[in-house]
Structure prediction request, 486 residues.
Amino acid sequence: MPGWVAALLAAALAAQVAWRVATRESGPRAEDLPPAPSDRALRLASLGEPAALARLTMLWLQAFDSRGDNAIPYRRLDYGRLVAWLRAILDTDPRSQYPLFAAARIYADNPDPAKMRRMLEFIETEFRAAPNRRWQALAQAALLAKHRLKDLPLALRYATELERRTTDPTIPFWARQMRLFILEDMDELQAARIMLGGLLATGRIKDPEERRFLEGRLKALEERMKREGKR
Amino acid sequence: MSRPAATVARFALVEALRSGLPWLAAAALLATVGLAVFLAQVAIIEARAVQASVAATLLRACAVFLVAAHVATSVAREASDRVLELALALPVPRSAYFLGKLGGFAAIGVLMALLYALPLLLWASPLEVAAWGVSLAAECALVAALALFFASAIAQGVAAIACTAALYLLARAIGAIQAIASGPAAPEAAAGHAARWAVDAVALLLPRLDAVTRSDWLLYGTPGGAEFARALGGLAIYFVLLAAAGLFDFSRRNL
Prediction:
């Protein structure tokens, strides 16, 4: 092989690496969510694999605010668009629990009451489409409405919806009687303990990642309460 | 299958096994499993569902692409190297040669499907994986027939791969296209009716590839026996149609 060919290869490789280093983004970008596609567009793009596309899109959405090159945390995202994305994903695979889990456990946990209400409305609407499958998200919404929004009538409405619309006998008793612990004067940690403890004890949470996530949330809540001296 | 056809099929299979195809298939398999393991670290719930659905979707796409590319390049190479003329100079009927090739390529697809179904046992039950694997085997055999039809008609590798991919993607998307064309947002004017009619007419000529090898079988359970048989029956009919069309074209050509 002629020496100049090896030299050319080495120089081209060095130029490629130098180019990528020189054009690297210097800091995180502040980018909001793009408008959501319609569920029909997602279905067309899935090429007959809606379950896989729904989950991949959900992972992308979940990582949107937390990836290294975006400075906007999820709390500052446009919640109108966020809800539209979650709805499109749920419509693409209505049997997936992922969008409502993320809505109830991540996106609804927002200090901005307007955004929180927006997410809770989404959860309530989607719960009505399949109450027996989606009751867990509404139960969490009821707790958030009571303890974060301090909106007892809203929390009671969710608890009543849960009681009236669910018919599956395997749904735990405490979930169908949520009205009681909405009305009782218990604190958020106590209520979360009953709910999460109940969920974990019934063996309904089989996914180890979900169990780890929920246990982490409970621990974080305990620490926050400790800091705020609410125990 | 007649003896000459069986010989041709065996050589098609041996050619594939001695080419880079097994290595490519293994590399795609490893990359997909690696991606699935990575995704499980990112997912906060449904980690197994994410792994199973994404791995199944990617493995399906890899299997179909590798089979189509192998068939198209193999047939195009035979044509350009004049191997085809040499083979047809032997006392082998054209039909036996074509059907032998089809059998060999379909067998490659079946082997690929078996290989790709195995890792899914990590995330789904054996029954679900078996249904998915059988369906992928049928789909790969169909794609082999499709690629053979285009490759022997066009005799150019890239063009044959492009035509196979176009028809395959259209067959996967036609269900969603029909739903959009007849949905509430579709125009009610004459143009809308004409578009719906045209889409329905195209759908009649395509196999229902959106109804087979679905990753949600691995998440929510296998389809009922009747539905599964109907889906595979549709593929079998289309496989016979492609074989007949390919044989018709191969027999009439002046070689």
Remarks:
- DSSP finds ten helices and no strands in chain B.
